[in-house]
Write a structure and sequence with these properties.
Blueprint: E1 17-18, E2 25-35, E3 38-40, E4 42-44, E5 48-53, E6 55-56, E7 70-74, E8 77-88, E9 91-100, E10 102-104, E11 108-113, H1 115-139, E12 145-150, E13 155-160, H2 167-183, E14 188-193, H3 194-199, E15 213-219, E16 222-225, E17 240-249, E18 252-259, H4 260-281, H5 288-321, E19 326-328, E20 331-337, H6 343-357, E21 360-368, E22 371-378, H7 388-396, E23 402-405, E24 409-414, H8 420-425, H9 427-434
Parallel strand pairs: 1-6, 20-21
Antiparallel strand pairs: 2-3, 2-5, 2-11, 4-10, 5-9, 7-8, 7-11, 8-9, 12-13, 13-18, 14-15, 15-16, 17-18, 19-20, 21-22, 22-24, 23-24
Length: 435
């Protein structure tokens, strides 16, 4: 939440009664106020603090469900609640800001939960139970809840499963959950002792600490122990769709899903995206997959064609370059730029030049934007004196890069194309020193 306290609040009074299952607005009395973690007699306008009431409809964060937001008012005094957290298991702290007036211990107030936010959160919490059941039905009973976060925007659910959930399985889970929603069965919550609850066959979450009395919740065909707030009937959830699935740890997967108007907004967003793609491709949305497939095939063909043309161009340039090689102590030295070549083109041309020049040290470079690619090659008879790796590094360092490779052939990259002419011109003297 937005109002987390650094230290635990010292509260020694009685617990509050939570009436938030039945009502979203209730009369209450202020029993304690906190400012900067310290108990105070009153909160004034502008101060951020915590309010404790004897009765509250506000749900405090627990079981993965976020705390309620809303307002606490008394006459003209107004405290905006941004989050509700448990101070103790039966004492709820309303965290927020005193927006106007003053609130004092002993004041009679009206505590009103933000109904839209609660309703959206409730839809997401109820659907989590249906989704948990569907996950177990579709993926297997090894699925166990590892954690959840339910707020007004979405439900996030972590569970044990050792493989990605496939698209087909996601569709199946959505199908099962939405079938429960349209069946519109009434929800039932019963409070009973833990032994009786176990006899009902309710799902008990692994690692949860349950008290002596628990709440058994029937939503659709799901039965779980849960203290959260829920819809009156499954139909209130409206509509359910999974928006994301991924791994969070070894053997733990996470799904995110949305309900109600959030689910509608998600689907409309996806439709708009697909519509935009279809518009760009000048086809109907249904024709998009085929059109994209055809474009990818076309692109692959063009890439092959371009690669072949680059090789032919490099080869033609290579023939011209043979005449530019200079003789240094019986070795041909050549350093030149190959226009339009890529790494593959540099290597192919290098091989051809070595064959033609017989005894040589060669540096070829290609420029793409500001980036430089360099290849150095040395024929077998020269390798004892000149190493391709050292030669390529000597050139690369002058254009802001480095590289390496075998003694007969080495590649490097550089970032400063402006230094290339000077770097290539320096190759002859460098080779001459070594032979």
């Amino acid at each position: 939440g937005k109002f987390k306290m650094d230290k635990a609040l010292e509260y020694t009074g009685a617990g509050n009664s939570f009436v938030g299952y039945e009502q979203l607005e209730a009369p209450a009395k202020v029993v304690a106020l906190y400012l900067d973690g310290t108990a105070v007699a009153e909160l004034k306008a502008g101060q951020q603090g915590v309010v404790v009431l004897d009765t509250t409809p506000f749900y405090a964060e627990s079981g993965g469900q976020v705390g309620d937001e809303g307002v606490i008012t008394s006459g003209s005094a107004k405290f905006a609640v941004g989050d509700t957290q448990k101070i103790k298991s039966d004492v709820f702290g309303h965290h927020g800001v005193m927006e106007q007036g003053t609130l004092a211990v002993g004041d009679t107030v009206t505590a009103a939960v933000d109904t839209a936010q609660r309703a959206a959160t409730v839809r997401n919490h109820s659907v989590t139970h249906l989704m948990h059941k569907a996950l177990r039905e579709v993926l297997g009973t090894h699925v166990q809840q590892k954690g959840s976060l339910v707020d007004a925007d979405k439900t996030r659910f972590d569970f044990t499963h050792n493989a990605p959930v496939t698209d087909a399985q996601i569709r199946e889970i959505e199908q099962r959950v939405n079938a429960e929603i349209v069946a519109n069965a009434a929800t039932q919550a019963r409070v009973m002792d833990i032994e009786s609850a176990q006899k009902t066959g309710a799902m008990m979450l692994f690692g949860e600490k349950y008290g002596e009395t628990v709440r058994v919740l029937d939503i659709g065909s799901s039965r779980e122990l849960c203290g959260g707030t829920h819809v009156g009937a499954t139909g209130d959830i409206g509509f359910f769709t999974i928006t994301a699935e991924g791994g969070v740890a070894a053997g733990v997967r996470r799904v995110e899903a949305v309900t109600g108007l959030n689910a509608l907004a998600y689907v409309q967003g996806m439709e708009a995206t697909l519509g935009g793609v279809a518009g760009t491709l000048k086809v109907t949305p249904g024709e998009v997959p085929a059109r994209v497939g055809a474009l990818l095939d076309q692109m692959r063909d063009l890439e092959k064609e371009m690669s072949a043309l680059k090789s032919r161009l490099a080869s033609a340039q290579g023939d011209e370059l043979v005449n530019q090689a200079l003789e240094v102590k019986g070795i041909k030295v050549l350093s030149a730029v190959l226009a339009g070549a890529d790494a593959k083109g540099l290597r192919e041309t290098m091989d051809k030049l070595k064959d033609k020049l017989k005894s040589a040290a060669i540096v070829l470079a290609a420029v793409d934007g500001g980036k430089v690619q360099i290849a150095a090659g040395v024929t077998a008879d020269v390798m004892g004196k000149v190493k391709a790796g050292e030669l390529v590094n000597f050139v690369a360092q002058q254009v802001g890069g480095k590289g390496g490779g075998k003694p007969d052939m080495a590649m490097a990259g550089g970032t400063d194309a402006s230094g290339l002419p000077k770097a290539l011109a320096s190759v002859q003297a460098w080779v001459a020193e070594r032979v």
